[in-house]
Amino acid sequence: PQQYCYPSLFIYGHRASGKSHVVNVFMKDLELPHVTVSCVECVSVVLLFEKVLQSFFGGDAALLLPRSPSLSDFVRIYRQQSSQSPAKQTRYIVMEKAELLRDADVNLLPALLRLQELVKDNISVILLSEIVWDKFRPNTGCFEPLLLHFPDYSKGELQQILSTDQHPSYSAEFYSSYINMLLGVFYPVCRDLRELRHLAALNFSKFCEPVAAGKVKETDTHKLWKYIEPHLKKAMQTVYLGEVSSLQWEQMEEHETGALRGLSAHTHVELPYYSKFLLIAAYLASYNPARTDKRFFMKHHGKIRKTNFLKKNEKTSNHLLGPKPFPLDRLLAIFYSVVDSRVAPTASIFSQISSLVTLQLLTLISRDDQLDTPKYKCAVSLDFISVISRTVNFDIVKYLYDFL
């Protein structure tokens, strides 16, 4: 324990792959001196410095920090305190959600990676992240941490983990068969343990209905599958949509009429006014050929028949082929054509495009290192965009090439 540990360790893996749990249990069971810092909670370096000093040396050490401490202030105070109470064994700083450190001061991440050298103490920093180290490495270079990858759970491992949540009223075999059916539907599209656990809890009551009513026995998996299959496939529309709670999903099941029929709760996401028009413009850019923009969006284009710009042997619907990529300038040109009022090209419009990408309504397909105009794809369905268009009184069907 008294030997110096490796200065920094970088643990990465997808969400809900056990990184934080394994590290925290490891620290607690071995009773190692450590502090766990969430980069989401520590919105400033002041909170980070205070938490580290308070955990290792007490509240009095944290009070020694000036009002706006720099990294050198933290190093100086840490060295003073560690000289008074030297480490008997390695101290660990566990940084959760470490990808947020990329947005902090440029010197913070390199300093944490070699903190042992700066403070001259037996200390090690563990970074937990959902992204790979290549996305972290600064251009100026830094100390290379020890890399450790937590792989995704396999289907068998997910089955084993989810089966531990069995309902007390039913047997373990019954719940295990339910989890097996659930993974058969959702595993190809979702590997997130938290999301799968939420879906399992959400749909289990439906699975139990025929058993509770006495129509089906617990061991008759074939009939149970026939009953639950349509409900699971309908629930696929709500995967990763955090705004859909269990209560809302049950209400949608009970009152499935009108616009709700066949649509996921995703179609009821509230968007800002101009974001709706940006999404409409993106859909038109993805599903209309670029050569048709003149026919749809120019006021004085003359008479252009569909047959005049129809390619030879073009018989396949663009909606069957899927969305096509489009450049940013084409998106903005269509947006300014379809929006009701005149809008200045302000930073707000560009930030709303970024928000649509974050919400996964648009997909950025150009590479990070590409200096040319970024390209996007629209990632929503016709039903979704139809609902959005109705909220702003825009008839999108009139502008779609496939419906001429």
UniProtKB/TrEMBL annotation:
Residues covered by the Origin recognition complex subunit 5 C-terminal domain: 271-400
Domain spans labelled ORC5 lid: 175-240
Keyword Glycoprotein listed: no
Localization terms from the record: Nucleus
Pfam families per record: AAA_16 (PF13191), ORC5_C (PF14630), ORC5_lid (PF21639)
Record domain Orc1-like AAA ATPase: where: 6-126
Broad class of where this protein is predominantly found: nucleus
InterPro entries recorded: AAA_16 (IPR041664), ORC5 (IPR020796), ORC5_C (IPR047088), ORC5_lid (IPR048866), P-loop_NTPase (IPR027417)
Gene3D superfamilies registered for this protein in UniProt: P-loop containing nucleotide triphosphate hydrolases
Keyword entries, A-Z: ATP-binding, DNA replication, Nucleotide-binding, Nucleus
Entry similarity comment: Belongs to the ORC5 family.
Protein name: Origin recognition complex subunit 5
